[in-house]
Amino acid sequence: MSNTIRAFIAIDMPDDVTAALNRLQQELKSLRLKVRWVRPENIHLTLKFLGDIKPADIETIGEAMADAVEGRPPFMLTLSGIGFFPGVNRPRVIWVGLGGETWHLTDLQTHLADRLAAVGFPREKRSYQAHLTLGRIRQAKRSGQFKPVLQQFSDWGDREFTADQVGLLRSDLKPSGAVYTVLKQVKLSGMANDD
């Protein structure tokens, strides 16, 4: 039995956003793309993937999260089109982009990364790119196969939601997909809550 926890820090999606993402996935599924779809209730806005942590690290991470959100008001984000990583010609991931007050999101993520780096969790080498992962592409039949999809759904979105809390989540990988458990949450008012 492992004595570590696979964990990440994220902003959870409200129910109406989850429902909108589910409808988008259903539309995309009708195009018969070879994609392993993320369950809609598991779609979240990742701020920092931590990997395997020790249970003793939960409190330290929670304090870093509380420091990062202290004095920050909630902010508005919107769903804004779809995209592909690393690009549309050789895609591996299909995602939904974000608009709205993204400068608040970027600032929050930067401060969180700073606080976590100070307690031993290294910064990512890549720059932060906010997105909501819809699915992982199993195979692209041909180069350019996803260009029409990108064009068709480039304007999709405009559903607005409030980002008002950040959670530390445990990820347990099961044959049926990942199961997430909230270990710690902090509200953007800076107040910590245990669940």
What's a quick, concise take on this entry?
With 195 residues, this protein is of the alpha+beta class. The protein is 27% helix and 39% strand.
CATH class, named: Alpha Beta
Mean pLDDT: 91
Task: Identify the CATH homologous superfamily.
Answer: Cyclic phosphodiesterase
- What structural category do the secondary elements indicate? alpha+beta
The dominant shape is globular
Alpha carbon gap, first and last residue: 24 Å
Q: Numbering strands along the chain, what is their spatial order in the largest sheet?
A: 3-1-8-9-10
Q: What's the alpha carbon Rg, rounded to whole Å?
A: 17 Å
State the total count of DSSP E strands. 10
Number of helical segments? 4
Order of H and E elements: EHEEHEEHEHEEEE
Please state roughly what percent of the residues sit in beta strands, choosing from under 5%, 5-15%, 15-25%, 25-35%, 35-45% or over 45%. Answer: 35-45%
Largest sheet, in brief, is:
5 strands, antiparallel
Q: Label the CATH architecture.
A: Alpha-Beta Complex
CATH topology: Cyclic Phosphodiesterase, Chain: A
Q: Which percent bin holds the helix content?
A: 25-40%
Give the number of domains.
1
pLDDT < 50 runs, ≥5 residues: none
